[in-house]
Structure formats: structure tokens, C-alpha cells
Amino acid sequence: MAGIFKAYDIRGIYGEDLTADIAYKIGRAFVTFTGCSRVVVARDIRPHSEPLFEAISKGICDQGADVIDIGYSSTPMSYYANGTLGADGSVMITASHNPAPWNGFKLCRAKAEPISGATGIMDIEKMVMEDSYADKAAVPGTISTYDILPEYTKHVAAFAKLKKPVHIAIDFANGMGLWENKTLEGLITYDGLFDEADGLFPNHEANPLNVETLADLQKMVRAGNYAFGVSYDGDADRAGFVDEQGNIIPMDLTTALVAQDVLAAEKGVVFYDLRSSWVVKEVIEAAGGTPMMSRVGHAFIKKQMRDNNALFAGELSGHYYFKENFTAESSAMAILSLANIVSNSDKPLSELVAPLKKYFQSGEINSEVSCDPQMIIAKLKEMFAEGDGRIFELDGVSVEFDDWWFNVRRSNTEPLMRLNLEAKSEELMISKRDQILAVIRA
Question: What are the pLDDT digits (tens) for 225-282?
Fold first, then answer.
């Protein structure tokens, strides 16, 4: 059971390490830890999301808090409901892109502020493991229902700046994108792929980070006439994109594109994932924004956004965060931003992306290591301490030179070291990539 409490959420295989009994205990611990009195609870369409809803809601109510049941929902919709319904917290029942046997909980305080391992999940774990909660309430809380979709739809529609019709292709992967996408109806037109809700995900893994899952979407786009294609993940808090030719758009370049649209309406701070291409910072500056670098992980990014009153942030994993959605994800807003850009240009998306591909990237390279990761970080810092590179430790270690940069960081979820590197020439990128990998894998 202890293994289900992760760095960013609670996640496990239903019926094995995550059961209805454990969900009930998590509900009690959540209220005990946060002191909340009104909790938004939403769920995805996995077959076991319903019994988990019943169990965690009973735990919440037994502690005296009320549950606002918004039913089936994308994760961005649950964040919006949290922020607009006067709730003290929220629980999204989902295992995101994990296979069908998995399920879990994404926990937030008021205003969709995430609870991570460092800010509460480990405390909740301790309560659950020790059965140490506040006493049950003399009067249990109640469960009410609320349809948040009309309000979320109106909220998303306010971002539309469309000058001409936009027609896109969407791979729903049978998941919660079917709910998230309802906000776009009447704004843009689309043809859907795997557009029947099925929590068993029968067609492919609902994970646009796995480029193999994009093959069906690419084929569809290449056979039709679409402005671009979109692939949702399981709970629709992430999205991957392909251009009108079916070519995958790197997610850092998507950040650059969305930032242009956001900054066209209002100037301000935009965060970009520290693994992103140099071009993202350049685009933000050119659009009149203030670029700021973020560390990896949604809980960290959201805090940095709040602390700096940022308008938008993009992460290399396909999360796109908007101030207007309580500094939380909204895939629908990201899709609408790309639609705005295409609608207001006489160029296809591929031609708008092409100038952004000016540097040479290694991509994220993972290495299993048996030594203490901090030894690797220390070795890299020592190697470059005497050079002309700028060393910083926002997440792991980064070193930036005039013509190349790299970041090496420890995975928050797996026993891996992750390398990202970029250079102004392919030859330099390959040379430096192999040099850094040799140190990591020694």
C-alpha cells in the first residue's frame, strides 16, 4: 500500500495496492490534513472510478466535510470547479495515462493548489498507514451534485480569437478528452478518432508522450484536410500535437506557440520548462513577455506561477498551465490557442513551426544508475566549474555556454538520470551528448 503514494499523486493497481477500503482511509486523512469543509470530487471513466468515488466520499463525509460531486470530468474541469465553487479542496479520481487496471487520486487545496509528496501526500500516507485521523464528525457531511461543464465551456470560449474556420483531427484515446473537448464545440470543427468513452482504453495507451500512440492520428491527418491534429492523454490534462502534414510538434515548441497567443492579449511572465529549447525563451521575449525558467513537475511549476503572477507555463510532458484556470492545466485552452494562431495566419502550422527548429536537441535520454545520483551531479559541477559555462541548480544541474547547454536531473518517479542537451550545430550536440553520457554512465 505504501507504494501508491507518489511524488505528485496517489496511484496504484485497483484491487491490489489500491482498494475501496484504502480510498475510504485516504478520504478521512485528506480532511484531517487539510481541515477542509467542502471538497469537489470528480472521476474518469475507468470501471473502478465509481467504487473509489463512493469510498473516498464516505471517508470525506465521515470527517464532517461536504462533497460536491461533479461526476465524470477531465482533470482541468475539476481544477476549474475547485476554483469557482468555493471549495476548500478537490480530488480527481484518475490514473492519468496509466493502463486500465490502474487508478488513483490527484489532490488539491483551495484554488486548485496541488498537494504533492513534499506538501502533504507523505503526511496523508502516514495517517493512512497508522490509522491516525481526527475523530469522526458528530454530523456527517453531505453529497450534492453539480454540472460544471456549462461554466467551464463559457470560460474556455472567452479565449477564442478566430478569424476563419478551423477544422482539426482529434484522437480521444477513449478517455476524458471527450469531456474536455465539449468546450470547443461551436468554436472549431473536428473529426474524432477513438471517440467512444471506454475506461479500458482498448485502442492504445492514452499517452501522447509515447510517440507510437500518435501513429493513428498522424495517418488520419495525412489522409484528410486538417489544420492540425490533437491527442489527449487519459484524463485530458495533457495534449500532444501534430501539424497539418502529420509531423509531431515538439512540446517545447508548442509552449512557444501558445505563449505567442497568450502574450498577444496581455503581456506578462511566461514560464518554460528548463529542458526546453533556447528558442522558447527567444519567442517569449519577441512577443513582449518576460520569460522565466521552471523546474520539472506540475506542483513546482504552479507554485512558481503563483509566486510570480505568471500568465502561462508549458512543460515538456505536454502540460499547459493557464493563470485563468487557477494556474492549472487546460488542454482545451491550449488547443484553442493553436487554433487562434492558425486562424489568424495565412500560413499552415508547419510553416509557423519551421523557424522554431533552429537548434539541435538530444531529446531526453534516460540512464539507469547504481550510484548515488548526487555523485553524478557533483562530478558534472566539478568538470565545468573552471570553464566559462553558467552553472545553476534549479533542478539537478544545468550548464549553459554560448553555443550549447545541458541539464542532468534525477527522475522524481523512477531510478533514472535524465539528460537534455542542445547545441547550435548537430556535430557539437552529438559530441557533447556523448561526453555527458559517459560521465553519467561511468
Answer: 999 999 999 999 999 999 999 999 999 999 999 999 999 999 999 999 999 999 999 9
Topology of domain 2-147, CATH: Alpha-D-Glucose-1,6-Bisphosphate; Chain A, domain 3 (3.40.120)
Assigned C-alpha cell, 306: 503563483
Q: How far apart are CA 148 and CA 155, in angstroms?
A: 11
DSSP code at position 114 = B
Q: Which of 96, 231, 277, 331 is catalytic?
A: 96
pLDDT tens readout for residues 154-199: 999 999 999 999 999 999 999 999 999 999 999 999 999 999 999 9
pTM over 0.90: yes
Identify whether the C-beta of residue 242 lies closer than 8 Å to the C-beta of residue 323. Answer: no
Q: How, if at all, do strands 404-410 and 416-423 pair?
A: antiparallel
Residue 413 reports pLDDT greater than 80: no
Pick the CATH number of 165-356 from 1.10.8.10, 3.40.718.10, 3.40.120.10, 3.40.50.920: 3.40.120.10
Q: Is 350 a catalytic residue?
A: no
CATH number assigned to the domain covering 360-441: 3.30.310.50
Report the relative pairing of strands 328-329 and 404-410 from DSSP bridges. unpaired
DSSP conformational letter for 173: T
Mean pLDDT of 296-325: 96
CB of 188 closer than 8 Å to CB of 168? yes
CB 141 within 8 A of CB 64: yes
Q: List Cα–Cα distances, 4 to 43, 104, 182, 184, 413, in angstroms.
A: 18, 8, 32, 35, 12
Q: Is there a contact between 14 and 1 (Cβ–Cβ < 8 Å)?
A: no
